[in-house]
């Protein structure tokens, strides 16, 4: 039952990648910017959750919601301060700003609290369930459940609400949307808020699941989530989910086959192969629906 | 032209100074002074100051004891302490000061391997013994070319030795037949321990069923742990550092891998307990230099003496190593019968079965001490003395 166990390991890891990848893909879909600071919003979310639990004694769900709200505000601030003034600048200028923003957040957090890691408190009960010989921790099921619930809520927002419609409109054609009376600036801010909120949730989930958080924890998951977004087709929401889960499973399989040291390399080999053979990702160009 | 003369004048003064220094050293070495000057070159400030301060307490205790008992052959030990600020350049400067200005017989220090290596060249040039209490890297006494640094010695065992201890412990005390190794691929420390574990374990009749590696800073080890579990090892050796080891143990227990785990002094941090959780850490072991809970009579005497002097604080491994270093050196000086560094060096290298707090020590040809190590067990998040393993 080793393989079933490995698939379960991969899905747990992949659901965290997927949550981060959603934020990448939404922002890319709407303003064609790869927001490299996204992985660091994820880190900030983990720390907000940590301090909410240890400092204010909150439970898991209040901490999760608080972290999502603070990250959403944080995401909007980043967008308004760093990216909005560059909306009409070249894309490379915005990209470099995003990298600068990423470093600023990482080292800002180190400046404030130091670089030492922190151990997440145990806020979720953890028992192990035996399914066909595979050991599934109740925590990983719970986390998978939350990730899926958040993705369903996101689908609902994008497809059934007014702001979702505005987001889809702006991503199709910003100028036409403006002519139709859509407030483009607010719509872009809303996109950042939702994406960053999801990253904040991913941060808390990561902390509970993996225990260790530190100021540079966002770098590698951020890059992996970027690969996941490209794998699924950047700009396409279901693509980010599938890409994230797929990447998690691929990494588990690579480790399971005995190449654990190649695991990180595998993710980037996938990125290169996708960019060479299918630049628009799994979900391709024709069925493209951008947000 | 004037400038040139000045330079020549200055150079000749310097040369004269150095020559005078050498001359003075020889005469002091042969002469009968009533004090033996020993330099102490430690990390008393900077990022590893806690190591240096702990060693200093042990060194002071041992020196006071020896002096109170009439010194070495009637000569008192005089310590000359220098703070190297946890920096290798400062450690080299301190060694230059101690050898040239203070003309010490020997230098004790530094606490870390890197700061000791920084003094190796100076030790060789000035023919002064350098004795590190706690530098555990093999490179301290053996250079890259495989040549032994003649004047450099250590009190602690070397890193790979802990792998040997763990293998003997697994094979003889836990009586396991097959083991898995999960090492940090980016650390020489970890790879060295893994290699010596494998060698000793296989020599003892065991088999290593799985050898895996991780990269530092990883957070997800589940896939590799699942792979290890499928090989059904009875024992897992993880010679890593606490940041990753804490997560590995937590995730392994979640996957139902409930066999004993073992590591080395890299685990020794309170953060390990926070990351893994006290429950997951049950049934895990680490090797260490010494334990204040060891029932050995010599150790308990030392613990009592140390507590009397330090407001009841139990001595840690660094305190014990500092204490032992002074006795190791004093023993060699006594057998040499003089303060001539070359003779002391020869006697240090000949040390056999010297009984110290951290074990019975013999020095091998690579200047590595052969001595016992301690195995500690984690019980509900606390380290408990388990057994002593002889080499």
Please outline the helices and strands.
The complex is a heterodimer of chains A (291) and B (391).
Chain A: H1 2-31, H2 38-56, H3 60-83, H4 91-113, E1 118-119, E2 128-131, E3 134-137, H5 138-160, H6 162-172, H7 174-179, H8 184-210, E4 212-213, H9 219-232, H10 237-256, H11 263-277
Antiparallel strand pairs in A: 1-4, 2-3
Helix pairs in contact in A: 1-5, 1-8, 1-9, 1-10, 2-3, 2-4, 2-8, 2-9, 3-8, 5-6, 5-8, 6-8, 9-10, 9-11, 10-11
Chain B: H1 2-30, E1 35-42, H2 49-68, E2 76-83, H3 88-100, E3 106-109, H4 113-126, E4 129-132, E5 152-154, H5 159-173, E6 178-184, H6 188-203, E7 207-214, H7 222-230, E8 236-237, H8 242-254, E9 261-263, H9 270-276, H10 278-281, E10 284-288, H11 297-309, H12 317-336, H13 341-349, E11 354-356, E12 359-363, E13 369-370, E14 373-379, E15 382-389
Parallel strand pairs in B: 1-2, 1-3, 3-4, 4-5, 6-7, 6-8, 8-9, 9-10
Antiparallel strand pairs in B: 10-14, 11-12, 12-13, 14-15
Helix pairs in contact in B: 2-12, 3-4, 5-6, 8-9, 12-13
